[in-house]
Amino acid sequence: MSELRGLEIKEPCFTRFTSSIEKHHLPERFTFPFYYQPHPLCVLAAQQLQKHLVTQTQWQHNFGLFDDPNNIIGKMFGVLLVKNTAEELGFISAFSGKLAEKNHIHGFVPPVFDLLTEDSFFLSEKVAINKLNEKIKELQDNQKLFFLEQELITLKADHTQQLLVLRGELVENRKARKIQRQTLQNDLNSSITDKELKELAQQSVYDKWRLKELNNQSQQSIRQRQVKMDQLTKPIAELKLQRKTLSADLQNRIFSQYQFLNKKLVPKSLVDIFAETALKTPPAGAGECAAPKLLQYAFQHHLMPLAMAEFWWGASPKSEVKKHQQYYPACTGKCQPILKHMLVGMQMDENPFLYNYAQGKNLDIIYRDQDILVVNKPSEFLSVPGKEISDSVYLRIKQQFPDATGPIIVHRLDMSTSGLMVIALNPQANKYLQKQFIHREVHKQYVALVEGLPQQNEGEINLPLRGDLYDRPKQIVCNQYGKQAITQWQVLERHPEKNQTKVLLTPQTGRTHQLRVHCAHAKGLNMPIVGDDLYGTLANRLHLQAQSLKIKHPVSKQVMTFKLEAEF
Question: Is 349 known to be catalytic?
Answer without folding.
Answer: no
